[in-house]
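Title: Comparing notes on inverse folding

I've been comparing how different people in this forum approach sequence design from structure. To keep things fair, I'm posting one structure and asking everyone to reply with a full sequence. Here's the target:
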């Protein structure tokens, strides 16, 4: 078996694998290949001894926020194997080449949307509960009012205002992807009269305070409004979204609203119908630390911080070792560790998916000493993911 980056003329073969593996129906394979080539991404493939492409995956390249700093994030997608080659370990072999290569290429973290947590844990990824989804009738929001101006986005309208509002909002959340106008445009793309997709910018005193993008899902006898993307500027912007959504009681029987995990709607809502709100937590996201030193340098730490951490990583030898971490930097050390973790536990800790106390319930997290300092560093943090790849 040979694993390598695909040549340009081989991407059409990867398209065919994706069509088969993901049960897609397409009219133009070449167009799908060109669409794949539009972003910044690497195509990896596994070939059998006869040179047939058996399996494929993408490593998308973008920047994500980590404690207020943008870091290089590889987003794994399109993981697929032809049925006749499954159980032969092709995807496993791609990961074993891709992950060390990502380290050499300068990635700091890697993330993905899993079909199975257990499968991707084999390669060092771990679960992130990244949003809560609230399902309710618009009547729940009766009493919330938005009195500002509303502007509906339509194809061809400028997107820079949307991009600016999103990035200001997203910079406060770990794992949120930084957007340029092109990426923002992909979120807005769609015709309201054909795709039933709508984008609205909310303004107060001429200033943008929030936006939301939603899809109209028709389930007779009542439609469902599914919010797909949103951002707001402070508490007033959040309340503006609730007030705007309250206007749709005649249009929809159900609203599906997602919020970051640190915004607990059930604790904030003031409505006599609050008990009618249903909440689910989405755990369909995973993180892997690619460069442990850069991650530890990046995360927010108290000024007088000093601790020693021992990391075990099966696939990236450079991450294996014991490191002294201070507010001024990270360096290898021979000191006894205060904290011992696997690469999986480290991923959850640095992004704030779990606190130190929660991580200790894992078998691969051991606190030996210096607990007071560690508890100040490894805390729960707000997480938001709105970009798919």
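Reply #1:
Here's my take.
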């Amino acid at each position: 078996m040979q694993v390598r980056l695909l040549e340009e003329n081989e991407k059409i073969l990867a398209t065919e694998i994706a069509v088969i593996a993901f049960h897609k129906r397409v009219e133009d394979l070449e167009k799908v290949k060109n669409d794949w080539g539009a972003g910044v991404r690497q195509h990896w493939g596994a070939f059998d001894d006869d040179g047939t492409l058996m399996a494929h995956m993408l490593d998308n390249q973008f920047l994500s926020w980590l404690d207020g700093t943008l870091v290089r994030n590889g987003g794994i997608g399109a993981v697929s194997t032809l049925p006749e080659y499954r159980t032969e370990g092709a995807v496993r072999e791609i990961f074993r080449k891709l992950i060390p290569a990502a380290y050499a290429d300068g990635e700091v973290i890697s993330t993905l949307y899993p079909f199975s947590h257990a499968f991707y844990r084999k390669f060092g990824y771990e679960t992130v509960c990244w949003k809560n989804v609230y399902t309710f009738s618009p009547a729940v929001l009766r009493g919330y009012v938005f009195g500002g101006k509303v502007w509906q986005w339509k194809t061809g309208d400028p997107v820079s205002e949307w991009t600016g509002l999103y990035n200001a909002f997203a910079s406060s959340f770990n794992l949120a992807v930084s957007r340029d106008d092109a990426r923002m445009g992909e979120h807005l793309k769609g015709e309201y009269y054909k795709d039933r997709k709508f984008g609205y910018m909310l303004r107060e005193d001429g200033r943008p305070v929030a936006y939301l993008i939603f899809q109209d899902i028709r389930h007779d006898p009542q439609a469902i409004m599914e919010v797909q993307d949103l951002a707001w500027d402070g508490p007033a912007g959040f309340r503006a979204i609730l007030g705007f959504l309250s206007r749709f009681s005649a249009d929809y029987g159900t609203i599906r609203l997602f919020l970051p995990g640190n915004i607990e709607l059930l604790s904030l809502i003031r409505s006599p119908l609050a008990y009618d709100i249903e909440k689910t937590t989405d755990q369909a996201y995973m993180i892997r630390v690619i460069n442990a030193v850069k991650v530890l340098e990046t995360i927010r730490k108290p000024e007088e911080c000093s601790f020693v951490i021992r990391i075990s990583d099966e696939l990236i030898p450079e991450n294996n070792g014991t490191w002294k971490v201070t507010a001024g930097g990270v360096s290898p050390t021979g000191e006894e560790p205060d904290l011992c973790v696997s690469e999986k536990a480290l991923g959850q800790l640095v992004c704030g998916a779990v606190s130190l106390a929660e991580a200790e319930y894992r078998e691969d997290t051991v606190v030996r000493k210096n607990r007071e300092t560690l508890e100040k560093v490894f805390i729960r943090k707000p997480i938001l993911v709105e970009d798919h790849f």
